[in-house]
Amino acid sequence: MPKLDAIFECIWRKIRKPFDKYTEYWYNKTETLEDFEGVKLILKNEQGGVAMNIALIAHDAKKELMVQFCIAYCGILSRHTICATGTTGKFVAEATGLQVQRFLSGAQGGSQQIASRVACNEIDMVLFFRDTLTTKTSEVNEDNLLRLCDVHNIPIATNIATAEVLIHGLERGDLDWRNIVNPK
User: Fold this and answer.
1) What is the largest CA-CA distance in the chain?
2) Bridge partners of 54?
3) Verdict on whether the full-model pTM lies above 0.85
4) Which phi and psi (to 5°) does residue 19 adopt?
5) Which end of the chain has fewer CB within 10 Å, C or N?
6) Rounded CA gap, 48 and 26, in Å?
7) Rounded to an integer, what distance in angstroms lies between the CA atom of residue 41 and that of residue 149?
8) 31 DSSP β-pair partners
9) Angle between helices 86-96 and 63-72 (to 10 degrees)
């Protein structure tokens, strides 16, 4: 059980209004403290912040860019659960040493596997580096993934600029609201 002074410090820093049903989003799932002021508080883990499920997808022309992005933000990504389509996951894991759950390659249905996890609200963020200059036969699957992210309020980045905004927001805790939508 955590020390009370640490609990009070967290409460004073994070809560500026009476306890309500939205206050538990800012804590992680590692330790729980029942019946403190009638609210279940979930304390942050050692890394700070909430562990998110992040999906990585990259078209062939953007795989190297995805690898470089993951190398640059390896410290942030290492605090989260990463899944990816087959070849993208292989390249990222080899280059960064991150644990990456690999699905099928995109052409064999890996994007659809990730889309199904989005539909089940098991993914918290998608980084999808698309090559919009090359016509793809799987464009219908891509549109389906984008639509599912919109329907389920899943942040999705389709280029490196948006991906950097999401990663920095993830580091600051701006996406901790996902725990209200998707309690773990």
Assistant:
1) 58
2) 82, 125
3) no
4) -60, 140
5) N
6) 10
7) 29
8) 43
9) 40
